Inverse folding.
């Protein structure tokens, strides 16, 4: 992911306003990509490496086109799982942070467990979840577990970083708890929440993939990660690469969409979304 | 007898006091006594400055009057509202920083107090428009705070305090962070607003020159714990303009107040 052009948000942040520099910043990584693919293709062809050891990029591309029916169905399954996990993470993380913000006792009681859930490796939890939950639910729960902590901790941070004087002003004008929440705390926390969501998007995909791989042996899965595992058993290496490519592309699109959302929501007021020239 | 009560309960409302502090002290949880004990009466319509070095508890005094903090002992009385009670409390507060909501427009920032008191939209719009006109920002209503200069942000903050038509304006070093040219202009604008509206103004500052230029009465405070150490009545003809700022009278007042501030700050802590 890191070798690809930076998404519009951070590019706009770092690049000076001149267009030439921008073009260079997009062109350079593209050239690296093209060169890398060309070298890969050449190495495979000149050394006559068989596709079950290392497929050429052209073979991967052909597989992608030929197997599109299977792969696209799997992509859809994985994306749906990721979306469900992400929505659950976003909703759960924000809701829990709001509850914590309203009641310190609740925060003291529950926050340590949120941390424990976060630091326990998901790959170790997934097999257990698969025993106790229906497979599809277990996969979504995995996506949720990894995605929800960044949302929770970022939202908590945001809700706690409200300007003290503004809070005093709300108090002076007799604002109700609900008014303070809707008109002050949530808008003030928005940049933090969006940052948390951006992390959660990528993590939900990881959670879904981990759970699919763990579920792989159960045989009922049909997501992209399951295709990778299945293709591995069958030594169908080109299809492994094709599925991996799709997963990577899905991750980039998810990140890009969330970065764009964040940019659009914050562009008029928050420092992070404003260019240097301001 | 800690706590704050409405002024009408502690004395005759016809006496014309806007705010009254009796034996007020404030001690923080860490044991530091920030203020007091102080006794202070502010008549209706007066422009009074609290002058003192940083950390002398003058901001604390304002917060106590605003009801944003409770006194440790003594009582704080504020006259009940004379005008439209639906518009909110009788107090408007301007902080040292503009303290605007960066995520919304100037118009919505000024409208905030009326939104919190559920004023009907039509009436609120009229009031917001009037308040923005008073501070000379009518055509910047749709701008976002970050698009404005420091002085303009402070004007928005002032408009927000004025929009509820409060009886008392509390200003906590509002112009301290501004450059001198902007500060002089805002000083003049504040004076002309005060002449028009005749609100009670309690102005906290650490600038001798600002306090003498603006106030009818300057109260000098001692540092830690803040107590009232001297009081000066500035009897200058109105309206005060740049002529006053360059007059011998003004220089004389400034010398007197400076001297009092010096001896108040130099006293050994008690």
């Amino acid at each position: 992911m890191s070798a690809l052009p930076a998404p519009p948000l951070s590019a706009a942040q770092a690049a000076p306003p001149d267009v030439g520099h921008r073009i260079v910043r997009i062109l350079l990584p593209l050239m690296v990509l093209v060169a890398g693919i060309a070298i890969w293709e050449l190495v495979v062809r000149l050394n006559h490496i068989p596709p079950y050891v290392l497929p050429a990029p052209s073979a991967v591309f052909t597989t992608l086109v030929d197997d599109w029916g299977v792969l696209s169905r799997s992509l859809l399954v994985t994306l749906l799982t990721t979306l469900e996990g992400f929505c659950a993470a976003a909703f759960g993380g924000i809701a829990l942070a709001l509850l914590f913000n309203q009641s310190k006792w609740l925060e003291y009681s529950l926050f340590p467990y949120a941390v424990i859930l976060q630091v326990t490796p998901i790959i170790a939890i997934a097999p257990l979840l698969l025993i106790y939950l229906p497979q599809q639910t277990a996969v979504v729960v995995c996506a949720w577990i990894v995605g929800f902590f960044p949302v929770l901790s970022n939202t908590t941070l945001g809700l706690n970083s409200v300007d003290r004087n503004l809070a005093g002003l709300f108090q002076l004008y007799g604002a109700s708890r609900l008014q303070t929440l809707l008109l002050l705390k949530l808008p003030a926390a928005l940049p933090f929440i969006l940052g948390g969501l951006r992390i959660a998007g990528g993590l939900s995909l990881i959670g879904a993939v981990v759970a699919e791989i763990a579920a792989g042996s159960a045989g009922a899965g049909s997501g992209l990660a399951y295709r990778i595992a299945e293709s591995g058993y069958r030594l169908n290496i080109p299809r492994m690469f094709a599925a991996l490519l799709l997963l990577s592309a899905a991750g980039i699109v998810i990140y890009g969409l969330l970065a764009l959302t964040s940019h659009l929501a914050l562009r008029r007021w928050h420092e992070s979304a404003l260019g240097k020239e301001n | 007898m800690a706590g704050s009560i409405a002024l009408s309960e502690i004395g005759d409302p016809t006496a014309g006091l806007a705010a009254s502090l009796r034996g007020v002290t404030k001690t923080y949880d860490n044991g530091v006594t920030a203020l007091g004990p102080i006794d202070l009466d502010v008549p209706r319509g007066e422009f009074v400055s609290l002058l003192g070095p940083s950390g002398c508890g003058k901001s604390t005094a304002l917060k106590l009057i605003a009801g944003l903090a409770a006194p440790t002992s003594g009582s704080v009385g504020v006259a009940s509202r004379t005008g439209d009670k639906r518009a909110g409390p009788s107090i408007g507060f301007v902080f040292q920083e503009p303290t605007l909501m960066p995520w919304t427009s100037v118009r919505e920032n000024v409208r905030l107090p009326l939104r919190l008191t559920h004023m009907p939209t039509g009436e609120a719009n009229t009031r917001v428009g009037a308040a923005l006109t008073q501070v000379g920002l009518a055509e910047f209503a749709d701008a976002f705070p970050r698009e404005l200069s420091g002085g303009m942000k402070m004007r928005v903050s002032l408009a927000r305090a004025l929009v509820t038509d409060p009886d008392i304006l509390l200003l906590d070093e509002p112009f301290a962070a501004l450059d001198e040219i902007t500060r002089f202009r805002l000083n003049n604008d504040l004076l002309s607003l005060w002449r028009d509206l005749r609100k009670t103004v309690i102005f906290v500052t650490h600038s001798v020159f600002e306090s003498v230029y603006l106030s009818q009465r300057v109260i000098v405070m001692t540092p830690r714990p803040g107590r009232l150490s001297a009081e000066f009545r500035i009897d200058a003809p109105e309206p005060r303009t740049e002529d006053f700022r360059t007059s011998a009278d003004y220089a004389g007042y400034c010398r007197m107040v400076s001297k009092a501030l010096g001896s108040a700050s130099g006293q050994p802590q008690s």
User: Anything to note?
Assistant: Residues 1-15 of chain A have pLDDT under 50 and may be disordered. Residues 217 and 224 of chain A are 14 Å apart (CA to CA). DSSP finds eleven helices and no strands in chain A. The domain at 56-273 of chain A is CATH 1.10.3720.10 (MetI-like fold).
